[in-house]
Amino acid sequence: MGDANGLDTFPKLMRHNAKVRGARPAMREKDLGIWQTWTWSQAQDEVKAFAMGLAALGVKRGDKVLIVGDNRPRLYWTVTAAQVIGAVPVPLYQDSVAREMAYVVEHASAAIAVVEDQEQVDKLLEIREEVPALQTIVYQDPRGLRNYTQDCLHDYAKVLESGRRALSEEPAGYDREVDRGRGNNDSIVLYTSGTTGKPKGVVLTFDNVISMARAGSEFEKLTEGEEVLAYLPMAWIGDHVFSFSQSYVTGFCVSCPENGSTVLHDLHELGPTYFFAPPRIFENLLTSVMIRMQDASHFKQKWFHYFLDVAKQVGEKILNGEKVSTADRIKYRLGTFFVYGPLKNVLGLTRCRLAYTAGEAIGPEIFQFYRSLGVNMKQLYGSTEASVFITVQPNGEIRADTVGRAIPGVELKLADNGEVMFRSPGVFKEYFKNPEATAETKTPDGWVRTGDAGMITPEGHLRIIDRAKDVGKLNDGSLFAPKFVENKLKFYPNIREAVTFGNGKDYVAAFVCIDQEAMGSWAERNNVAYASYQELAAHPRVRKIVEGHIREVNADLTKDPQLAALQIRRFLILHKDLDADDGELTRTRKVRRRTIAERYEPLIAALYNGSKIGHIETKVTFEDGREGVLAADLAIADLGGGTPAKQAA
């Protein structure tokens, strides 16, 4: 599937798009409030020049080219330009601190980096002594760099000029390089988020990525008319497939927001037809709506919630084409006019005909909320090692508790221990410089172990229970699936993060992190004074609100006998938000459970030994890079329903 009419690499696909749809928009970027547009022909002109400019800097076939920065057209074009001359792009998470970058730079043996601006230049200069192989840094935004005199620094514009000179001297050089590329060549190296240890570099070939990008596009009937907003990290496989690969395969336009803080506004302006977001983005969108409604008049709030109830009852049935009474249809149409339509417009989802969520499990309440509004949201299950696509929910078979069927071309099975395994054209080539990890994950006959525990329904749908390593049992033998409970808690706008415990224990207990924006809005409306996150989190009224949310989750869990044991018996509200800079979360906001267990061991012990107060001292990293210690005594709430066991955590 990766080779259609010889279009087996991204440079070949770009050349094809410039030829057959050269005048159509390929990319947009919002700059100073104005959308700038480049056609496929214009995009290829820039790729041509920059590819030859990189060659002039000494980049050779097989070299690794680091790419660091926000979503910018020139950084996406750098991916293609590197591939033109046979180099392999290695995107890094742009919010990584210098020490995190150092590991990837050294491990990838990269000699050149193409970065967005001064912030990324400074981080790379800071680690140059640790990674002497890094010889060249090309920056795209010269602001703030006028007085930098290091020989390793090069202005993107000047590299572009040198490339244009090379093209004028040898016009056929570009096509010759493009033609040398083959589908089985290395296309990109994407480093995993490192949930359980050091990040691993996943090597994907052109055949891997293009075959799955094409399979996904054909499955959903994507066309060149789609509009996509590229706002997720370029180092993440989801962005690489949805904002890059599928664009090249189908010819649709990808737009980059002005910056991270304008994403929601830019989403509203653009109105994408095809939208991808991990659960946390949909959670944040929902939180912003609920905060706004809390400031509305009593009448508007009542009106809003009435129609949300109507949507909850019949919205998803209407979206699925099921039978609904005439009276309910009329009420839903009224709700569309007064609530759902304006709400989708505010969220930027009015034109959205397909929305995916993946990365981790989404709470069923959040999933049903969007579908009830008429948003065709689907769950997708995939991984970097799969070039994204493993399963997708087909139209008419959307369920909150499954992630769909295997996409065409993908084989699916469960190992004896319930671990999900797959085989497909998208299976990664290897983990870079890590044959041991490759052998552990990938069998000789091409099956990949996902690390997720799941089950396949009689209809062929895959249901993910949790990470296989995270699923455990309570002392009474009941199944303990932490992520399942955590997602239910995170449905509430006031709760930003939750971590549950219970494996080898008598009952389930939880840490909760409040959402400062949502809870701060509540505090302002209720004249609750606070000076810091720590003070707000410790406020008795805040604890009472969180307790109410947990009791609602517990009540919901009692409805299913298999889940009743997952009720939370004791909880505390952490004095700080979990932070990627402190190593508690990955850059994609996945909880590092081992780190949490070690760092907060005294609090976990307090949750299980009957204590009413837990004392903790934690190291924190401030925004300016300084480190300090944050100490706190945290109140522990007991919800009853079980007797705290006198046991060590």
Any overview of this molecule?
- The structure is a single chain.
- The chain is an alpha/beta fold and 649 residues long.
- The protein folds into three domains: 10-276, ANL, N-terminal domain (Rossmann fold, 3-Layer(aba) Sandwich), CATH 3.40.50; 279-409 and 460-467, no CATH class; 472-638, ANL, C-terminal domain (GMP Synthetase, Chain A, domain 3, 2-Layer Sandwich), CATH 3.30.300.
- Helices cover 39% and strands 22% of the residues.
- The chain is built from 21 helices and 28 strands.
- A five-stranded parallel sheet has the order 4-3-5-6-7, sandwiched between helices.
- Strand 10 (227-229), helix 9 and strand 11 (253-256) form a beta-alpha-beta unit.
- Helix 1 (10-20) packs antiparallel against helix 2 (40-56) and helix 11 runs parallel beside helix 17 (516-525).
- The protein is globular and about 80 Å long.
- The termini are far apart.
- The model is unreliable at 642-649 (pLDDT under 50).
Summarize the structure.
With 649 residues, the protein is an alpha/beta fold.
Count of discrete domains = 3
How are the strands of the biggest sheet laid out side by side? 4-3-5-6-7
Number of DSSP strands? 28
Instruction: Give the helix proportion (percent range).
Output: 25-40%
Question: What is the arithmetic mean of pLDDT?
Answer: 91
Which labels suit this protein?
alpha/beta, 3 domains, GMP Synthetase, Chain A, domain 3, 649 residues, Rossmann fold, disordered C terminus, 39% helix, globular
